[in-house]
Amino acid sequence: MTERKPPGMSFETWVDSQITRSIARGDFDHLPGAGKPLPGLDREETAYDWALAKARREGEDTAAMHPPGLALRRERDELPARAERLTSEAQVRALAEDYNARVQAFWRRPQESRYSPVPGLADVESLVAWWRENRPPAPPAPPRQAEPPPRRRSSWFRRPRA
């Protein structure tokens, strides 16, 4: 396919001739999937479906593709799992209050559609109560070992006793 199209020949004719020569050389023999139907031809695929499938194939997080309201709802559902990893009640409160501030900012923005999902606020007190009940017990403090008495330093100029 590195040769140039001859002048005066239409593009379609030139491409057809390239394909015919490749078939004659056997370039298309023994290809994987030869003689099998193309996957996914039996259903309609929207641009969103295509983008979602591509993101999944590449191992990307598809949560970033949600509309903002739906993403906030999903985040509210994941708050307990995130709070479980925190170590203090103040951090749990800050997590819930940060989420609520972002929801209130979302409410103030004009929406793309009147059918956009509207997220609700997180109940800070119930999240904190849940965290108190379900937090892992604090690991016991290691027993404190008695320190050995300080060693008496000998002077370098001390003469040996005879």
Q: What tags apply to this protein structure?
A:
single chain, 162 residues, 6 helices, 45% helix, 0% strand
Could you write a compact summary of the structure shown?
The protein is built from 6 helices and no strands.
Structural overview:
It is built from 6 helices and no strands. The protein has 162 residues and is an all-alpha fold. The chain has a domain at 66-134. α3 (68-77) runs antiparallel to α5 (89-108) and α5 (89-108) packs antiparallel against α6.
Layout of helices and strands:
Layout: H1 11-25, H2 47-57, H3 68-77, H4 79-84, H5 89-108, H6 124-134
Helix pairs in contact: 3-5, 5-6
Overall shape: it is: flat
Sheet of most strands: none
State the end-to-end distance.
Answer: 100 Å
Element string (H = helix, E = strand): HHHHHH
Rg result: 34 Å
- Amount of helix: 40-55%
Structural class, from secondary structure content?
mainly alpha
What is the number of helical segments per DSSP (H or I, 4+ residues)? 6
Average residue-wise pLDDT: 85
Low-confidence stretches: none
Q: Care to count the β-strands?
A: 0
User: Which percent range describes the beta-strand content?
Assistant: under 5%
